[in-house]
């Protein structure tokens, strides 16, 4: 039964990772030092420091999204497997 649930578990794991990766409000309230900031909060701090330099902002945003894109490509086979299993009858 675990083989049938694996695509759903992979989807939940990816969504949980994205939710914790993009968490902004909690660390904004609780974290006081820049060394302990998550990447989304550090990106906002970077934006306030370099607001007119669009090249640097685009590079920082790209670096921020790279782990999520990499996780999607590693978990993509589970998504496809879930779609394929949904269409089977029998």
Which terms would index this structure?
78% helix, elongated
Give the strand tally: 0
Cα-to-Cα separation, first versus last residue: 16 Å
Residue share in β-strands: under 5%
Please estimate the helix content.
Answer: over 70%
The chain-level mean pLDDT equals 82
Low-confidence stretches: none
List the total number of helices: 4
The rounded Rg comes to 18 Å
Q: What's the assembly state of these chains?
A: single chain
The number of domains: 1
What is the N-to-C order of secondary-structure elements (H for helix, E for strand)?
HHHH
Give a description of the structure:
The protein is mainly alpha-helical and 90 residues long. The protein has one domain (11-86). Helix content is 78%, strand content 0%. The chain has four helices and no strands. It has helices spanning 2-21, 25-30, 39-49, 54-86. The longest helix is centred in the C-terminal third of the chain and has 33 residues, at 54-86. It is elongated and about 55 Å long. The two termini are 16 Å apart. The model has no long low-confidence stretch (mean pLDDT 82).
